[in-house]
Amino acid sequence: MKMTTSNTANINTRLSHLQEETKFSISVDCVIFGYDTSKLKVLLIDCNMPPYVGQKSLIGELLEARETTTQAAKRILKNCTSLKDLYLEEVSVYSHPDRHPLGRVVTLAYYSLISITEYEKHIEDVENKRPEWIELEQIKDLAFDHQKILRDAYNRLQRTVREKPIGFSMLPKKFTLIQLQNFYETVLNIELDRRNFRRKLMALGLLIDLKEVQNNVSHRPAKLYSFDFEKYKQKQNIGTLNFEI
What we know:
Elements: H1 11-14, E1 24-35, E2 40-46, E3 56-57, E4 59-62, H2 69-81, E5 88-94, E6 104-115, H3 116-119, E7 132-135, H4 146-163, H5 177-188, H6 194-204, E8 207-213, E9 223-227, H7 229-237
Parallel strand pairs: 1-6
Antiparallel strand pairs: 1-2, 1-4, 2-3, 2-7, 5-6, 8-9
């Protein structure tokens, strides 16, 4: 279902009243990371505000009067993906006085994670524009201070993905060990020793052997696994877990 015009009022249009130095607004910007089996990507839209016309920007909105910043982030994510309960983590506050050309705007940034292959069909138009997945390594010059926000969010993602199993929300529900290793190598931008990586993952006891193999592949079919989130929660609750890649 497409969003109505009333729900997609351009954040830049709504900021037109912020000409006086005594006024300011709070916004929420979302860095939506996606993974499609080999590349880490970010969901961006075209900016239509001078002097940034023609540049890409993150997806954000003004904070509404009766909501928290987390509620605003969830609203933004639902509006552009039609999905609920996505992984969401706060990044930082950005408050430089000149960060927005229309006035004093303080923004709180969050990042979220999506499996592109699982959820591509859910992506909705934002401000009458189609969001676009752009490879992270190709993003060089975003509007506003969004390049810094993106860099900070990526650094936070790299730290968190080593300590928590958040990456499994970006993978298919059934995956092979090589797909899992490729994901970590892509996000962390490092090369992992195959044997050590598998030994570490198996030692955690959190992978479920589905007793299935890949279908319709040109190479030897690999075994399929899923992540045991319930067991992870149990180990976390009793303090017996050391999840670190």
